[in-house]
Amino acid sequence: MNSKKKWEYFSKSLETIRNVYLECMESLEAIFSEEWKEFCESKDGQQYKEYLREIEFPYRNTLNSSFLIAFCSLTEHVVADITKENVSDFKKKEIKEKKKKVKDENNWLVTNIELLKTEFDINLNDADTMLFSHYIRIRNCVAHNGGRISGSKYPPQLKKAIEAIQEYAKNGNYNNMITTKDDYLMVGGDLISDVVTKSEEIVERILEKI
Question: What is the distance between the alpha carbons of residues 60 and 153, in angstroms, rounded to a whole number?
Answer without folding.
Answer: 26
